Amino acid sequence: RAKKKGRNQFEMAKVEVNAGAFERLIIENDLRKAIDNHQLSISYQPQLDLKTNRILGFEALLRWNHPDFGMIPPSDFIPIAEETGLILPIGDWVLKNACLQIKQWERAGFYSLHVAVNLSAQQFLQKNIVEKIEAVIKETKIDPSLLELEITESMVIHDIDSAVSVLQQLKDLGVQISIDDFGTGYSSLNYLKKLPVNTLKIDRSFIFDIDINPSSKALTTAITTLAHDLNLNVVAEGVETYKQLSYVKKSSCDAVQGFYFSKPLPSANVIDFLNKTKKVVQKNA
Ligand code: C2E
Ligand code: MG
Ligand code: MG
Ligand code: MG
After folding, report:
1. pTM
2. Is 40 within 8 Å of 93 (Cβ atoms)?
3. Are strands 147-152 and 176-182 parallel, antiparallel or unpaired?
4. So which residues are the signal peptide here (predicted)?
């Protein structure tokens, strides 16, 4: 009896594993067609300048509305996109559509709003990444200073010298560069002074307990002081509460992004949001 039960359990486990693999295969296969089938979209999360209380711009966050599984979060499909190389066409799609969005906001009377686009390591390591970005800027006719590219520490530590060279070429195009999830990666402060970047985004793991954990507060303040000494801007990610906001302000962060102000918004809702906040840079303002 015990033996039989054991075998059934084993078979059950095997079926589950295969189901997982099967589901992954479906996801992988469907992801290939997601762009053509218009299942991808971009949500936009506002970033607020703490000195002027103005909306600086938005971070572009990819969404996949799967016909059977519904909304699949990026954490579930971006790793698959990276493993399969699909992140390259998907990344191109995000970049182009984020730039087109800037023009749409301008047509609606909202100028100077930037868009931050997350780059994955594979995109960043493409031989022609600089040419690609330059081509998108030309094609969509955006002001390059409104495009911000988010990279992570892990993308630059393997080969700092070539990362510095690519980042400098990107900066020469006029785009802004930020380091995302700062503080969670390799975090050698030594390389930071070499990197031609504009902004550090403090990871939300430091923000979520900033009002109750003295270490998180100390780290946020230290990162901000360091960044300002290096002439970098600091954005606090993941601000969810008023208390967190006040601590972030006390730590002298320049800008915030988080659910306290807004969740990422479907692009159709952004104009509404901007009209409601009334503190954005408008034409002739
Ligand atoms: P990220 O770049 O660090 O983006 C911020 C994430 O934090 C977003 O999750 C956002 O919804 C979430 N967030 C913002 N404010 C709050 C808050 O107050 N509380 C909490 N709990 N979460 C908050 P999302 O949209 O699920 O994206 C997850 C990650 O997927 C992103 O992290 C980014 O690394 C990646 N990702 C998203 N879109 C793209 C893309 O187009 N390309 C690439 N390569 N990666 C992307
Ligand atoms: Mg990001
Ligand atoms: Mg990121
Ligand atoms: Mg982040």
Report:
1. 0.92
2. yes
3. parallel
4. none
Distance 285 CA to ligand 3 centre (A): 33
For residue 145, give both structure tokens: 């200073």
Beta bridge partners, 282, equal 110
Q: What is the three-state SS of 151-184?
A: EEHHHHCCCHHHHHHHHHHHHHHCCEEEEEEECC
Cβ of 46 less than 6 Å from ligand 1: no
Q: How far apart are CA 57 and CA 176, in angstroms?
A: 12
Helix, coil or strand: residue 1: coil
CB 195 within 8 A of CB 163: yes
Q: What is the pLDDT of residues 179-195, one digit of tens each?
A: 999 988 766 777 888 99
Amino acid at 170: L
Q: Average pLDDT for residues 224-242, to the nearest whole number? A: 97
CA 133, 273, 71 angle in degrees (round to 5)? 65
**Rounded Cα gap, residues 143 and 243, in angstroms:** 36
Q: What is the C-alpha to C-alpha distance for residues 250 and 42, in angstroms, rounded to an integer?
A: 32
- Are the C-beta atoms of 175 and 147 separated by less than 8 Å? yes
Angle at the Cα of 190 from the Cα atoms of 118 and 198, rounded to 5 degrees: 40
Q: What is the best residue among 40, 44, 61, 177 to mutate for testing ligand 1's pocket, by most ligand atoms within 8 Å of CB?
A: 61
